[in-house]
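Figure 6 in text form: structure in, sequence out.
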C-alpha cells in the first residue's frame, strides 16, 4: 500500500454549467495497491474501503457523461484498465487514471470518462452518512 500523501485537486463551483463542485478537495492517491491480478486488486479495494467505513457498492466503469452526486461522497478504486477522466464538470480538469489509483470525490464534484480502455473498471463506494443522489 502506498504511503504517499494524496494529490489534492481544488475545483471551484461552475455556475455557467451548474456543477457545484465542493470546497473540499478531490483526493487522488496513486498506486495504492501493487497487486498485478485485477480481480485480486478489486477484492483488496473492497476490503480496504469496508475497513475504513465505506461499504463497497459496485464494480463498473466511469460514465462517459458529466454527472455528480448531490449529497454523497464517493470513493473509486481503479482495478483494471486505464482512463482519461474529467473532474469538475464540462469545464473541469482532465487526469489519467491507472490500476491501483484511488479517487475520493466530495459530494457535488462532477466526473466523467473522456476515454477509457475497453476493460476499464473500478470499485465504487459511498460514505454511509448520506444517501446516493
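Output sequence:
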Amino acid at each position: 500500500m502506498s504511503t504517499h500523501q494524496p494529490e489534492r485537486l481544488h475545483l471551484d463551483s461552475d455556475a455557467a454549467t451548474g456543477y457545484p463542485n465542493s470546497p473540499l478537495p478531490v483526493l487522488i492517491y496513486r498506486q495504492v495497491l501493487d497487486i498485478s491480478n485485477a480481480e485480486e486488486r478489486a477484492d483488496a479495494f473492497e476490503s480496504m474501503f469496508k475497513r475504513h467505513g465505506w461499504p463497497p457498492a459496485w464494480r463498473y466503469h466511469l460514465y462517459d457523461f458529466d454527472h455528480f452526486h448531490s449529497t454523497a461522497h464517493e470513493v473509486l478504486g481503479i482495478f483494471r484498465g486505464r482512463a482519461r477522466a474529467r473532474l469538475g464538470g464540462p469545464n473541469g480538469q482532465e487526469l489519467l487514471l491507472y490500476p491501483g489509483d484511488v479517487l475520493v470525490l466530495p459530494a457535488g464534484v462532477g466526473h466523467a470518462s473522456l476515454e477509457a480502455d475497453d476493460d476499464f473498471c473500478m470499485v465504487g463506494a459511498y460514505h454511509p452518512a448520506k444517501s446516493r443522489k
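Caption detail: The chain has one helix and nine strands.
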